[in-house]
Amino acid sequence: MGINRAVFRKTLSDFTGARLTAAYLAFVSVPLLLFSKIASSTNIIPVISMDLRTEYLFGFFSVFVVLWICGVALSILAAYFGSALIAQEASDRTLLLLATKPISRKSIFISKLAAMLAALAIQISLSLALATYIWVSSFDLDLSALLMFLSKLPIFAVYALFVALFFGTLSASISAVSSSRLRAVLPSILLIIVAFFVFIQIRGATRAMGGYDGLLGFSDIGYDLGNIYISTLEKGGIRTIPLIQGIIGKFMGTYRTPQNLMEIDYDHGVILPQLEKEEFRTAGQSAAKLSAISLSLTLLGMLAFSRRDIH
Fold first, then answer.
1. How far is CA 210 from CA 52, 87, 216, in A?
2. Looking at the domain assignment, is residue 262 inside a domain?
3. Residue 280 lies in a domain
4. Disulfide-capable partner of 272 in 45, 98, 263, 303 (CB 3.0 to 4.6 Å)?
5. 311 in a domain, yes or no?
6. DSSP 3-state percent helix, strand, coil across the chain (nearest 5)
């Protein structure tokens, strides 16, 4: 069992075509452009020195990275790619032809999965680079700011890897037993909605009542992704202000977030520099959990495809 170069190249070419890439980059760019336009018209970005302005805007950029660029947008793309691995071949009636070639089914699955991950890595790199350019140019930041932003992109890419791996393998494993791409992608889309949006309310209510521990807490994929993200930022030397921590904590559950998103010491009239973390698991445990699930999904998908009745 190994990677078949022909299958790998064909799948990689399908996932990195000019039209698909352009459409995805446009999809990623829209919220950034809308935010910059709203920010410019409402003056929500304070008039401060270039260094402070850069740091302030980098914090907001890090929110877009975790929630959108390498969050919801990337997870949708990963689910879209994963759903095409086998189900698209079945719906196009090319799966039988592929299965009759002198290649083991396990090799076909692994080759397609490897090509999908390579394509996602390319799309991650392009989307982060484009988002950085849009952000820096929209807010008239200088060259040193651009270089600083670019130097932090590998840190963001670590988080993106876990998002792509989890949602990609989930969709790919379902695709291995499905004859419809729509059926393969819908469960992944549902989980994306639950992880990034629905759990915001569930998490807050159950933690307040003490019912978050156990299976419910373990199933909180959004928390695990957020846990990996803030740990990666810290290890990369990136410090975020309380407001940014509050926004990330509100969506990902990684910080104990007050109502106004910031912790205020009313006795001394100051904003505390750090929100308290919600440490249900270490970042290493979250990374191990998502890696183990992704590996299990890969093995299940490969096994299911090898036993699939193709006619």
1. 40, 42, 11
2. yes
3. yes
4. 263
5. no
6. 75, 0, 25
Amino acid 271: pLDDT: 54
Q: Which two tokens stand for residue 183?
A: 């059926």
> Which one, of 235, 263, 238, lies nearest residue 249 by Cα?
263
Q: Which domain holds residue 276?
A: 5-306
The answer to whether residue 111 is domain-embedded is yes
Within 13 Å of residue 271, how many CA atoms lie on the same side as its CB? 13
Cα–Cα dist 259/264, whole Å: 11
pLDDT tens per residue, range 121-177:
999 999 999 999 999 999 989 999 999 999 999 999 999 999 999 999 999 999 999
How is residue 123 annotated by DSSP? H
Contact criterion met (CB below 8 Å) for 271 and 264: yes
Where do we find the tokens 């409402």? 42
Q: Please provide the DSSP assignment of 250-299 as one string.
A: HHH--B---TTSS-EETTTTEE-SSPPB--SS-HHHHHHHHHHHHHHHHH
| Confidence check: pLDDT of 211 > 70 | yes
| CA atoms within a 13 Å half-sphere pointing along the CA-CB vector of 248 | 33
- Give 265's strand partners: 270
Residue bearing the bigger pLDDT, 37 or 30: 30
User: In the predicted model, what is the mean pLDDT of the chain?
Assistant: 90
Q: How many structural domains is the chain composed of? A: 1
Distance, in Å, from the CA atom of 235 to the CA atom of 58, rounded to the nearest integer, reads 17
- The predicted structure's pLDDT at residue 99: 75
Q: pLDDT tens across 53-90, in order?
A: 898 899 999 999 999 999 999 999 999 999 999 888 87
DSSP 8-state assignment for residue 144: H
